[in-house]
Amino acid sequence: xxxxxxxxxxxxxxxxxxxxxxxxxxxxxxxxxxxxxxxxxxxxxxxxxxxxxxxxxxxxxxxxxxxxxxxxxxxxxxxxxxxxxxxxxxxxxxxxxxxxxxxxxxxxxxxxxxxxxxxxxxxxxxxxxxxxxxxxxxxxxxxxxxxxxxxxxxxxxxxxxxxxxxxxxxxxxxxxxxxxxxxxxxxxx
Length: 189
Prior knowledge:
The chain has helices at 61-65, 71-75; strands at 24-28, 34-38, 47-50, 57-59, 79-81, 88-90, 99-100, 106-107, 112-115, 126-127. The chain is mainly β. It has a domain at 14-136: SET domain (Beta-clip-like, Beta Complex). The longest helix has 5 residues, at 61-65. The protein starts with 23 loop residues before the first strand and ends in a 62-residue tail after the last strand.
C-alpha cells in the first residue's frame, strides 16, 4: 500500500514503515499480555522481521539510565540488550510485543527473525529471548506453565544528594504493571 501522490511529503513513502516483513496483528496472548499474531500463513524459513536503524532505537546503557523513573522501568520490558553490541534496543514496531517461549516458532539469530517452522494464520509469533537478549540470560524463574519469567529491571541508581524530598508525589518508587512484571519483550528483535 502506498500513499497517493497528493499526500504531500509522503507521496513516495511506503505506508508500511514497520519492519515486520509479513502481515501481523496484535491481540491478547495466552502467554502474557499482548502478543503478535500472524495475519497469514508463514512458510518455514521466511524472514519475518529485521532490524532497521530508521525504525529501531539503539542506546548505550548510560543513555538508557538517563531516563527518569518511572519511565525507565516501564520502558525496559520493551527493550532488549543486544548480545553482540551490548546496546539496549527498543523496536519501533510491534515486534516489541513478541513473547518468550522455551520452544518458539521463530529464530532470532543475528539481526533478523526467521520462522523456524510453518506458522498458521492466527498463531502467536514467539521467540526465545535468551537467544539475543543479555538481560534474559541466566533466568531460572518459571510461571505455572513452566515458561521462563524474567526478573524485574535493576533498581534505579541511588538518588542524588539534596534535600531528600521527591520532586513529585511517589515519583521514582512506583512498582506494579510495567515495572518489571512483564516478560521481557523482543521487539524480540
